[in-house]
Every structure is written in structure tokens, then in C-alpha cells.
Amino acid sequence: MDDFIFERIINECQIAYARCEMVYFEDKPIDYRYLEANQAFYSLLRTSESELIGQSMKSLKHKDPKEVEGFIEQIFEVSKKDLKEFNYYHKQFEQTFKVNIIGHKGNEFVLVAEQCEPFEDAYKHLQEEHHLIMNSIAEGIMVVSQEHKVVSLNQSALSILGYISESSVIGVNIFNLLFAHLKNIIRSKFNALLDRVPFYNQTTKFIKSDGTWIDVTFSVTRRTKGNATIGYVMSFQDVSKEKELENQLKISEDIKSIALNHLPGLIYQSLPDESRTITFVSHGVYELTGYTKLEMENEAPFNYSRIVHQDYQQEIWSDWQNSIQTGNEFEKEYMIVTKEGKTKWVYEKGKPIYNQSNEVVAIEGIIIDLDKRRQKDIEIEHLMYHDRLSGLKNRLYFDHMLNKYVEEARYPIGIMVADLDGMKFINDVFGRQFGDKVIEEFANILKKHEKNGVVVARSGGDEFSLILPHSEASNTYEVMINIQEEAKQFIYKSNIKDFQLSVSMGFETKVNDSEDMQTIIKSAEDYMHRRKLIARAQNNRDALSSIKATMMANSQETQDHMERMGSIALQVGDKLGLKQNTMDDLYLLALLHDIGKVGVPSNIINKPGKLTDEEWKIMRTHPSIGYQIAMSSIDLKSIAEGILSHHERFDGTGYPDGLKGKEIPLISRIISVIDTYDAITQDRPYRKARSHEEAILEIKKCSGTQFDPDIVEAFIGIFA
After folding, report:
1. Number of domains in the chain
2. Is the pLDDT score of 529 beyond 70?
3. Chain centroid to CA 385: how far?
4. pLDDT tier at 652 (50, 70, 90 boundaries)?
5. Which residue segment(s) compose the domain that 502 sits in?
6. For 158-210, how does the pLDDT look when each residue is reduced to its tens digit (9 = 90+)?
7. Are 484 and 534 spatial neighbours (Cβ–Cβ below 8 Å)?
8. Is 98 part of any domain?
9. Single residue among 48, 83, 116 that ends a domain in this structure
10. 405: domain CATH number?
11. How many Å is the maximal CA-CA distance in the chain?
12. Model confidence at 537: pLDDT above 70
């Protein structure tokens, strides 16, 4: 590329760019120097070229020299690794930047930086995520100020304490809120514990809004800003039922036998062996496990470990061994398998029992059914990550898994995007209910491909996205073609018209860490948009069909001419081994290269005789007119340069810009040959058609002057 053009591109680019040189002392990086930068970089650092170029980083004015040394060290460390990108918070500007480091040559490197999303948006997004997470947690969470006043709390905290609205709690002193008339005693105890913060799993009683007391376990951690404490975060659980169970264990055997039959779970005693052989169990065992009390106590022996899910057996016994050795309580959530073969989540709390010789003789504890709570958690997660209409994953899950697969380096990663064609037409003609049916049908097609780690998501109204880990481009392409073929099988018949499901798709492959994921996604979307445009052209509908109709009405262009041009163009492209996206552009150009003629008077276009000089001047404007039309359409931008240059000549004597040789876009050079061939072999108002042989002879004659010799050779080759 011409140095002037490159320099202009860099200077006009909105992304901050600088070329720098690392400065070493005894092989240790101590600084770096700015060699060149663009205007965006000066604006980002709020400086100018004269103040920056030639200066070292340390020589510039900084509020915090340590921050500068840290930044230099971070750049050096990043440059040694595969990771070339990191986020950096600039204290002086109070702004986070995304920084990319690209090795150049020797000690030089290129630094590209851009501001991250505005703080307010990021903060709002963080707040929303924080609120969602907080209210998905079963434990009560309460944020308290340094003055012991409630700053915020989650829904579980309100529920545990019996309050409906946050307004009843925010700003209230926690000692007044939780301990009522005991507040002074509790405040003294709390202040005495402050030196131990953080502390965990302390037990106490809280008073509820209705005046009743509940047993809770709670933990407290500090809220800090810098080195200063600005408050506390308290988490707590209502363990009244567990406390009640523990108290029941201490009552007489007669009262205990009555109480055990009504517990929401079971109480057990077992031998302290790995099999956990049951010696006693309460009647609640049947509701929890499907086994009766008699089956567990009388079957010799009944090993509790056999109903523990195999994924947890080793872990649970390891934790019990630790409890036996230390004397600590055992506490864990895990899955069991019921007598019917169903899995169920339970909570177990127990302790070893010692004899007078301090030998462990038994294990006792309680097991409570957590399945409903776990199911609720699963339902919440399902709502968070699934699209309600299609049943597919949503965009949030797609983004989560995309980041996960990149972190796990599951390369090559195929990114596929799909867009249902004509959804507005479907909704208008058949109704939105049928439009929803179309989305559901296509979702069912995509669900068949949810295997081997493939992620399928509905990312928008009629848009879908797929992630294919460990998928070569050829495999991703094959999957895309299969999906499109499966979609064609869905045909809806109505009294208006038959409808065949049509979907435009595109894909791209990320093969390593160096490729930007957003660029990969955009490439897949661009591919899809090109395919959508071709689908519209082939089906003779929408704006493209209107343009074609206008061309044919105002000139000698016909549908047959367009189809001949398109067919020959694809044959030549295949002969040249063009990539699919180039083939797509070539086909579009074959159809629409003369689109600019809609702006030329029809009396000039259809004139049977020779054009005057003035008329030729007007006629030669059609490539520029076509270029302007294409640039105004997002679907045609990719062929705008091809339209502009399709009358350029290989020897540089063409128009409008006098481009020469390879300066002329490849697809324009191909169309130039095909258009000439079609013009010679078809009738015109001012002459009769000539034979194929005469056309080939004429094209050979103009090879190297009007036409690219390589294109001529490929063109002639398709007739061989």
C-alpha cells in the first residue's frame, strides 16, 4: 500500500495508535519512547504531537510515577505472552482503556488503545447483575454502614426477617432491627468481635417483624475503601428448623420417637465406616428416599453410602473422615438416588459420637430434602439463559459460552449466524401466531445440532447464533448447508399462498487467540448478509428485484441477459478457484454491473445509431451513478468498487479513473470479459449477433490491452 495512503488511514482512524520503542538498561525494560502516533492517540492522552513524539513515558508529567512503572512492566509482560490485550485503569484520567500490544520489529511495538464503555453504563450493568445475583441467593445478605445502619439487602433477607418492602429496613440501625430490647448487650458483644472480622458461621437469634425470634447462622466481612473500613457485609440463614432438630435429639427417648415421625427429613445413626451402615433412622426416611424405616434398619446391613450419588461418594467419605479426626461437625449438600432411581438434592449435618475412651462409636445427624429449593434455582437459571418462545438458549448464555470456549482455547471455533428470510411478510400475511410457529420450527431444526458442545441460541427476533468448538471451516460450512436444506423441508400451505421456510446463513472461524472475536462475528454476519441478498435476487423479490425491473424497463437489459451473465461468472470464478465470498460478489456484479444506467436517459441507452460525443459523455457516467447507488445500500456496498471499475481497461485507457492492470478489482476484470462476450453474441438494435467463435477471436485479440490475459485464459477454458 502507498505510504501516503497508509499514513492517511492511520491519522484518520478513530482508534488510538502509536508506534513505540522499548528502552532497556542491562537487559531490563525501564521505559519506552513514542516514535509516532495518530490524532486519535493525541486526543486520548490529551496531548499534542510536539509534546509526545520523541518523549519517553517516564519523562511525561504524571501524578503517580509508580503507576507509570507498573504500566511499563505490564506492557513488557504482555508482549512476552500469547495474550496481546489487557484492560488498564488510568488514575489520572479516571478512565479504563482496552490496550492491544502488537510486536513490530526489534525493540519496537505498536500500541493500540480505546476507551472502554462509559462508566455509567458499566456501573448500571454491574448494578443489574449484582441485583440479579443477590436476589437469586437463598441466604439473606445485608450491607451495613460503619454506623451500623442498613444500606441494602436482598429479597431473601427481607423474607427471612418477615418484611415486605426495603423501605421498612433501609437506614435502620441493625441492633434495633435484629435484637430489639437486647440491642445494647448484642452491640457490646459485636464490638468485642470486630477485631476478629471476618468471622463465619456464628449462631445467634434475630427478631422478625412480627416479634418472633428465629435461630440463624451468620457471617460478617468488612467493606473497605483503600485501607479504611466503611462498613460490613452480613450473610445469614434461618436455621430454626435445624436448631429444633438438634434440640429434639436432646429430649427423652419417648418424646423423641414422637417428634421424629414428623420431621421434614430424617435423623439417623450409623456405624463410622465408609459404608455408613445404618443402625437407626427416623420415619421421614420413606418420604426422602423411598426406603422404609424397616428396610434400612433390618436389612443386614443397609449401607447408606449406596444411595449417595456416585459423583459425591468419595468426597463425602473424605469429609466425614476429617470430621472424625478433628471432632468438627459434618455439613454438606449433595445428591442421593432414591429407591425409584430418581436423583434428589439433600442437606446433611452430623457429628461423630465418642465413648468414654474417646473412641468414635457412631455417626449421628440429620438429612433434609433440598430438592425443591434446588429445582427453584434451576428454574431461575433456565429463565436467565433460555428464550421462552423457541426453548433455545438466549444471547446472555451465548456470550457466556463464547467467552468460556475462548478461555479454554477450544480452537478452531466456528461462529455461525442465521436470519429467517421474509419474517415481516410472514407476520403480515399469515399472522404473528404463524410467525411464532416458523421460529419454533426453525428452532427445532437447530436443536438437532446441539451436541458435542455446540451452542445454539436465539440472539434476536428472527436471528440465531451457533458456536461450534473444535470445528474446522469445512465442517462448519457443512453444518450450515445441512441446516439450510433441513429448513427447506418446512412448507406451510394456506388459502393465500404456499410458504417454504428460507434462511440466510453465514459463518467464520476463529483459529487462535490473536484474532478478534468481534471481527470474526462481524465477518460471519457480513457473509450472511451477502447470502441474504443473493437469495432475494434469485427469488426475484424486494428492492433488488425492483432495481432489476427498472434496469430492464429503461435499457436493453433482460432477465435472460442477467442469468447468462450470472451463470458464466460463476463458471469463471470456479475456474479461478475464488473463495465463496468473492464468488458471491462476482455473481451480484454480474447481475447489477449496469445498475447505473437507471440514471441515464432511455433515449441514449436505446439509441439504434452511433452516439454523439455529448451522449457518450453522459453514457460514461453510469459506472459512477451505479457506485453511488451501491454505496447507499448496505447489501450492495461490497460490489460498489466493482461497479465503478467494470469499464476500466487492462492497459489503463478505460474509464472513469483510468485504472491499469491489477489496480482494477478482480471481479471487474472478470465482468469486463463476460459482458463483451455477451454483447458480441447477442442481437443489438444497431447490429446482429455474431458467432461464439468470432466472439472468442475478438476477446483473444484484445487480451493484454482491454482484458486481463489471465482472465481471458480462464474464460476460454470454461468452453474447452
Report:
1. 5
2. yes
3. 12
4. very high
5. 387-529
6. 999 999 988 889 999 888 888 877 778 877 777 777 667 888 888 888 999 99
7. no
8. yes
9. 116
10. 3.30.70.270
11. 122
12. no
